[in-house]
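Q: I have 363 residues here and want to know how they pack in 3D. Can you give me a structure?
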Amino acid sequence: MKATQALHNLGQSIWLDNITRDLLDSSTLKRYIDELSVTGLTSNPTIFDHAIKNSSAYDTAIRGTIRKGKSGEDLFFELALEDITRAAVLFRPVHDRTESVDGWVSLEVSPLLAHDTASTLAAAKDLHGRAEQPNLFIKIPGTREGLPAIEEAIFAGIPINVTLLFSREQYVAAAEAFLRGVERRIDAGLKPGVGSVASVFISRWDSAVMGKVPDSLRDQLGIAIAKRTYKAYRGLIDSTRWQRALNAGARPQRLLWASTGTKDPKASDVLYIKALAAPFTVNTMPEGTLKALADHGEVSTILPVDGGNCEEVLAQFAKAGIDVDTLATQLQDEGAKSFVTSWNELLAVIDSKSTALKKAIAS
């Protein structure tokens, strides 16, 4: 049995952290679903930037959108929605079979809106309405300004993938925003079963402290943060408040591990996959990590519900001078800025391609 199947059987959903038109056109994504137990997909501005910049597969579609008079963000979202819609159709059988627990795809609002609550909410409503797919998550960053938008979007019935979470505290804030939206739906007599995941980024922790801590702590910070967060997750869904909401028909917001590709060349290429196995969670993997797991990975242990030795490990990092609270804020800010950089690069690529294709059409 492949390790991907073993992980799926354990109860963790495997999602692909990638989307390109080539993946769709070549039926590679379909093969991953059929052979590697992939049951969902995520995207972000960096993924689309690389997809469009490094392929001619979008040129025909760009020509079509140019003829419609679209440009910039409008042109990009037309391309992205086409890809995301095709992926959503592929995952729809999983979504239906699992009664909406799994089979989701994710599309992010413009990262330029990360600190603009009203515009984030408006964009989330617009994108979800245009996609017309029941298994689409709209990604909203769990920034301070994003949290009210998350609550309002859940109240409006829009499934949300909360992204750019880095710590237990950031996760808990996002989970509470989700639950407030659900409770408001219950109070208003609306169906409370709105889907959501909360995405906690892992590998960036270890990249941030590389060379700043003793070798004995190498590649241990991200996993310790994950264990601490998983303990909080299990505590929340077992709490009286959450149980009341579940009894009224709500669905739990699942915890998702993001940024699980290994960055350290000296570490195992499935380091975070093996360490973060846990039922009723999601691990969204880069394509290379997914293939590595299928080829030579193994799943032997699951995350401890009580967090295991995470506090002891985090205490060692504190002794080494690492303030995880400060670093969590820094990582979230840097993550938001990196998506803005990718977004601007993406729009520049689209503008460049559009200009070249316009000239070709005119000639």
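Q: Anything worth noting?
A: Residues 155 and 181 are 4 Å apart (CA to CA). The radius of gyration is 20 Å.
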